[in-house]
Backbone:
C-alpha cells in the first residue's frame, strides 16, 4: 500500500481529525480558512473551530479572477493558467496561516478546498437542450497538496451534479448534520454574494430538509459600488444605501424575473444577478437617472424582499421558525432591518454564533464537514428526492507526493 493511502486510512479511523476548510466565495473578498477539530461523523459530528481567518485577496487577484468570473466568453488560455495559479496561491495562504498559528502541517489530516467558482450553470439558466447542470470551480487541489504537503480533498460540487443535483447548495449536508434541532424549526440563512437557505424542521423528518439558493444578496450591490465608487469593494454599513430613497418603479422591475418565480430548491449566481440585470431593470422602468444612493437603497430593499419571500415560504411550512444567519450580509444592518420588517412570522433572527459557529467562518466549516464525511462518514440517507442529494459523498483526493 502506498504510504499516503495508509495515512489517509489512519486519519479515517481516528476518533477526531484536524481539517482545514477553505472557502473562496462569489464576493472575491478573500480566502476563508477554518481549522476545525471534527469528532466522529454523520449525525454524531461534533466540531470545534480552533482557528479562523480570512486572508484578504489582493487587487491583483481580484482583477485576474474577474477576467473570467461569471463570463459567458473568456480567454481559454488565461483560464487554463489561472487554475493552477489559484491553487498554488491558496496553498501559500494555508502555509502562511499555519505559520502564524504555529501549527505543524504534519498534524493536519486533510485540507478541504472549495476552490473559486468561475461559472455556475444549472439547466434552468442555459439554452443547450443536450446538456444538464454544470458548475466550474478552479484552484487545483493538486497544487494545494503539493504546496502545503497536506492531502487535499476538493472539487466537491461535481459529484452532486453527477448524482442529479445542480452542484449547490451543498450547505444542506453540514447544516443537517450539525445544526438540526429537535427543539425548534430552523432556517439557516447564508448572506454572501448569493443568498441561500437550509430548511431544518424540528420534527427531524430528513425528507423535508432542503437547501436552496434564494437570489442575490450582496452581489449586485457590490458590483455597483465597485463600478461607481473608487477603491470601494462594498457599501460598508450601508452608508450609501441609507442616504437614498427606494424607487418603486425600479423595485418592481428588479422583482420581475423568471428565477425568482421558480419553486425552491433552485440555484443561481452572478451569471444572472449582475450589473447588466440592474441596467435592464433601469431601462424597463425608465429610471436610468437615479442617484447612486437611490439605486443602492432600492437594491437593498430588492435583496430584502427576495430573501423575505423565501423565508416566508418556509415559515408557512414550519411555524415559529428561527433564522440563524451567516455570511457578510449580516453586517449590513439596513438589510437586516428590512428583513425583520418583511418577516413578521419569523420567531427570531439570530446568527450562527448562537449555535457555536462564527457566522463568517460557517461556509469554510461546511466544507471541512464534507471532507470529514468523505473520509469517515457513512452513507447518508436523507431520502430527499426533490433535491437529488440522497447518499452522495463528495470530494476528490489529491496527495502531496
Ligand atoms: N460591514 C459591512 N457592511 C455591509 N456589507 C458588508 C459588511 N461586511 C461584509 N459585507 C458584505 O459581505 C460581503 C462578503 O460576504 P461573504 O464573504 O459571506 O461572501 P461570499 O462567501 O464571497 O459569497 P457566497 O456565499 O455567495 O459565495 C461583502 O462583499 C459585503 O457585500
Ligand atoms: C456554485 C457556487 O459556488 N455556489 C455558491 C454561491 O454562494 C452561495 C450560493 O451561491 C451557494 O449555492 C454556493 O455556496 C454554498 C457554500 C453552498 O454550496 O452551500
Residues:
Amino acid at each position: 500500500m502506498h504510504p499516503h493511502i495508509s495515512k489517509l486510512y489512519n486519519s479515517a479511523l481516528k476518533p477526531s481529525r484536524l481539517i482545514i476548510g477553505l472557502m473562496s466565495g462569489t464576493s472575491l473578498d478573500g480566502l476563508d480558512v477554518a481549522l476545525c477539530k471534527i469528532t466522529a461523523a454523520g449525525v454524531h459530528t461534533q466540531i470545534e473551530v480552533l482557528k479562523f481567518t480570512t486572508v484578504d485577496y489582493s487587487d491583483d487577484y481580484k482583477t485576474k479572477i474577474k477576467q473570467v468570473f461569471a463570463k459567458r466568453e473568456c480567454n481559454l488560455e488565461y483560464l487554463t493558467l489561472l487554475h493552477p495559479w489559484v491553487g498554488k496561491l491558496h496553498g501559500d495562504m494555508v502555509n502562511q496561516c499555519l505559520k502564524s498559528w504555529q501549527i505543524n502541517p504534519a498534524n493536519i489530516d486533510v485540507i478541504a478546498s472549495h476552490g473559486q467558482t468561475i461559472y455556475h450553470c444549472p439547466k434552468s439558466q442555459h439554452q443547450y437542450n443536450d446538456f444538464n447542470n454544470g458548475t466550474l470551480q478552479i484552484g487545483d487541489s493538486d497544487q494545494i497538496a503539493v504546496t502545503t504537503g497536506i492531502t487535499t480533498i476538493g472539487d466537491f460540487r461535481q459529484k452532486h451534479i453527477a448524482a442529479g443535483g445542480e452542484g449547490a447548495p451543498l450547505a444542506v449536508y453540514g447544516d443537517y448534520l450539525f445544526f438540526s434541532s429537535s427543539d425548534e424549526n430552523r432556517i439557516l440563512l447564508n448572506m454572501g454574494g448569493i443568498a441561500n437557505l437550509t430548511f431544518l424542521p424540528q420534527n427531524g423528518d430528513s425528507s423535508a430538509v432542503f437547501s436552496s439558493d434564494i437570489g442575490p444578496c450582496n452581489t449586485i450591490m457590490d458590483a455597483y459600488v465597485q463600478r461607481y465608487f473608487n477603491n470601494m469593494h462594498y457599501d460598508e454599513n450601508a452608508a450609501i444605501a441609507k442616504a437614498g430613497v427606494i424607487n418603486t418603479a425600479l423595485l418592481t422591475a428588479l422583482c420581475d424575473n423568471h428565477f425568482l418565480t421558480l419553486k425552491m430548491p433552485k440555484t443561481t449566481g452572478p451569471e444572472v444577478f449582475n450589473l447588466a440585470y440592474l441596467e435592464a431593470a433601469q431601462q424597463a422602468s425608465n429610471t436610468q437617472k437615479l442617484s447612486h444612493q437611490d439605486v443602492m437603497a432600492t437594491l437593498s430593499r430588492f435583496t430584502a424582499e427576495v430573501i423575505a419571500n423565501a423565508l416566508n415560504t418556509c415559515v408557512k411550512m414550519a411555524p415559529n421558525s428561527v433564522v440563524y444567519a451567516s455570511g457578510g450580509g449580516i453586517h449590513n444592518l439596513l438589510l437586516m432591518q428590512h428583513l425583520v420588517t418583511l418577516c413578521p412570522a419569523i420567531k427570531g433572527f439570530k446568527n450562527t454564533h448562537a449555535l457555536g459557529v462564527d457566522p463568517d467562518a460557517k461556509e469554510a466549516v461546511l466544507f471541512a464537514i464534507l471532507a470529514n464525511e468523505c473520509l469517515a462518514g457513512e452513507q447518508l440517507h436523507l431520502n430527499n428526492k426533490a433535491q437529488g442529494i440522497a447518499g452522495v459523498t463528495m470530494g476528490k483526493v489529491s496527495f502531496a507526493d
